[in-house]
Amino acid sequence: MAAAIKDFRGQLGPGKYRADMFQSFLVALASDVPAGVAAITNTKTVVSLMRIPDAQAAQALEGAAAELQKQPSVLGKLTFMAERAMPMASSMAKLRTRFPNWSLDTVTALQRAMLENLYRDLCDELPPDTIADSNTLEVLGLSAAEASRLMQEVQEKKAAAEAAALAEQEEQERAQQLQRAMEAASALSPSESRDDDVEDGGGDAAPIGAAGTHEYECTQCGYVLFPAAGRESKFFGDAFKCPQCGAAKSSFVDNGPV
Q1: By the 8 A CB rule, do 254 and 209 touch?
Q2: CATH match for 188-257 among 3.40.50.880, 2.20.28.10, 2.30.110.10, 3.40.50.300
Q3: Burial grade of 254 (CB within 10 A; 0-12, 13-18, 19 or more)
């Protein structure tokens, strides 16, 4: 990078060309490069290699901000990276006041949101309950306490999403089991149904508390079955054992009619 800048600077010559070159760099940086630690660090390197004084850097920032006024999101990226790569020049340029349609409070809130969202993205690449290294936090201007809070938020959001996905999967499995049970019941012929009713009439009372097909759940493994109403003694008799874990019928609880 140093050789490329030296060669280009030699072709342009001294004076205002260096300032123009730096302003073009700033516009391209904000337009084309994602905001992040690498972009901020590279900007610091460019400022050092080009030997840009704060006053000249501030002028270049003002010019770049003027070019980007109709692109507030891009101007926001420029502000975010410049404040961390060139804090003095950014202060001199008063970048947060150069958004034509946004108040200072709005710009401040958006800059904070950009910082927190960027760090949340970094958290996805870190082990749980850790924070980024001290250099990363210093470049971003984020305290260790703030980093820990954001990591906790990310982990809580992940846990909630995983719990929701698991609940949805379990609900789908229960619905499939119910569908299979209803299909099996409907597949019985009328004569079979009458025979079952006769057999059931001389047997034990159906272990249900209300009319209709009930849901029975194994308390050992969570297996669910739906014996057809009126035929519980045939398909869910005293000798029934859980096909999944082998638990006795006494391990099942009646979740009520479905």
Answers
A1: yes
A2: 2.20.28.10
A3: middle
Tens-digit pLDDT profile for the chain (258 aa)?
555 555 555 555 555 578 889 999 999 999 999 999 999 999 999 999 888 999 999 999 999 999 999 999 999 999 999 999 999 999 999 999 999 999 999 999 999 999 999 999 999 888 888 899 999 999 999 999 999 999 999 999 988 988 899 999 888 888 888 888 887 777 665 555 555 554 554 444 444 444 578 888 888 888 888 887 777 777 778 888 888 888 888 888 888 887
Query: Which single residue is written with the structure tokens 């390197």?
Result: 45
Residue 225 to residues 122, 200, 245, 257, Cα–Cα distance (Å):
45, 19, 13, 12
> Which residue's entry shows tokens 């391990």?
251
Q: Give the residue extent of every domain in the chain.
A: 2-146, 188-257
Q: Residues in the chain, how many? A: 258
pTM: 0.62
The Cα–Cα gap between 251 and 82 comes to 66
